[in-house]
Amino acid sequence: MKMTDIPFATTDWSKIEKTEHKGETGCAYWHTQQFGDIRVRMVEYTPGYLADHWCSKGHILFCIEGELVTELKDGREFILTPGMSYQVADNAEAHRSHTKTGAKLFIVD
């Protein structure tokens, strides 16, 4: 990832418009900023959220609140709790997430 043409700025995430993305169950609420090819998001998953698709996009994901379970298509599962992160490259390993309790995440992709 090469970061260019991004001037210094601060972000008040509470002022960034929220969009709703329904899962197979539950919802994800995204606050999104786009910087060229780089997308930066603050994402909140409701309790009981299950993604409705397998994702192959690369991400750097940091768990701020709650607990997130990320399942890889090969069956492995990883649990993130506050202060933990994961990273995966584009087209490396298909994954999807779910949460019983809800989660708040910071994601760069």
Q: Which structural class matches the secondary elements?
A: mainly beta
CATH architect. name = Sandwich
* Overall pLDDT score: 95
Q: Could you give the order of strands across the largest sheet?
A: 1-2-3-9-4-7
Characterize the largest beta sheet: strand count, sense, and whether it forms a barrel: 6 strands, antiparallel
Instruction: Provide a count of the helices.
Output: 0
> CATH homologous superfamily - what is it?
Jelly Rolls
Radius of gyration: 14 Å
Strand content: over 45%
Q: What is the count of structural domains?
A: 1
Label the overall shape.
Answer: globular
Q: Termini separation (Å)? A: 9 Å
Number of strands: 9
Order of helices and strands: EEEEEEEEE
The CATH class designation is: Mainly Beta
Low-confidence stretches: none
**CATH fold-level topology:** Jelly Rolls
Please, could you describe this protein's structure?
The chain is an all-beta fold. The chain has a single domain (18-108), classed as Sandwich (Jelly Rolls). The protein contains no helices and nine strands. The protein has strands at 18-22, 27-35, 38-45, 59-66, 68-72, 77-80, 85-88, 95-98, 103-108. The strands form two sheets. Strands 1-2-3-9-4-7 form a six-stranded antiparallel β-sheet, with no helix packed on it. A hairpin with a 4-residue loop joins strand 5 and strand 6 (77-80). It is globular. The N and C termini lie close together (9 Å). The relative contact order is 0.26. The mean pLDDT is 95.
